[in-house]
Amino acid sequence: MKRLLETRNINKYFKKPVLFHVLRDINFKVEPGEFVSIMGKSGCGKSTLLYILSTMDTDYEGELWLNDQLITGQASNELSRIRNEHIGFVFQFHYLLPEFTVLENVMLPARKLARKDLPEIEHDAIEKLRILGIEGLAMKKASRISGGEKQRVAIARSLINEPMIIMGDEPTGNLDTYNSEIVFNIFRELSNDQGLSLLVVTHDEDFAAKTDRIIRMEDGKILD
Ligand SMILES: Nc1ncnc2c1ncn2[C@@H]1O[C@H](COP(=O)(O)OP(=O)(O)OP(=O)(O)O)[C@@H](O)[C@H]1O
Questions:
Q1: Ligand 1 pocket: which of 14, 19, 37 to mutate (most atoms <8 Å of CB)?
Q2: Relative orientation angle of helices 147-159 and 102-113, to the nearest 10 degrees
Q3: For residue 37, how far is its CA from the centre of ligand 1 (angstroms)?
Q4: What are the residue boundaries of the ABC transporter domain, all occurrences included (predicted)?
Q5: Domain count, the chain
Q6: At 145, which CATH number?
Q7: What is the ipTM of this complex?
């Protein structure tokens, strides 16, 4: 089976202000199509781990594998290519450009990758908005839509380059129950219908309970 995401004995230390062993022997896998949540108290190392998994942080010990490829030790230009092609990101704050339209915001990561021409990218972006049920918002400015709609646009944007995995850092942290449920259902459909894997850091027990698996962390370790 494809090694979609796997960590082998990942350890990380912060060296300042004092030496701090923040991640300890992190070993886990995410299978294709799996929807996994990561939970743990504030400060246990979730964001630090996500930063490594997203290939942004290269200062760690151990191995990270993505899509059958050893990521650890790759050059930074190769890492940004892998990141743009294979990973979609959804954060607590949507980071949309307020003066751009919804459609332009969704198109941006594909324009950066420059693998397709503009009409094709626009077609893909409208398709992603359709999947999320918000194609009617395409020509609106991002500053003019609601918080729940903004998060759906952010998800559409995360899908534009057809990633294998979506990584989320508190993607429902800013949403009310109604909108959190919409986001959960979208993630569930992406996993079930499109075989996309999802790895989501959350403090929301109700959200996590509905995912396929919960990885619980404590003091930099994964609990069995
Ligand atoms: N750059 C840094 N230098 C030193 N220590 C750091 C640094 N970044 C984070 N830490 C410490 O590492 C620990 C883990 O932080 P991290 O942000 O990964 O926790 P978290 O589980 O994501 O917390 P939260 O749920 O509050 O976001 C914390 O004790 C934090 O203070």
A1: 14
A2: 20
A3: 18
A4: 5-223
A5: 1
A6: 3.40.50.300
A7: 0.96
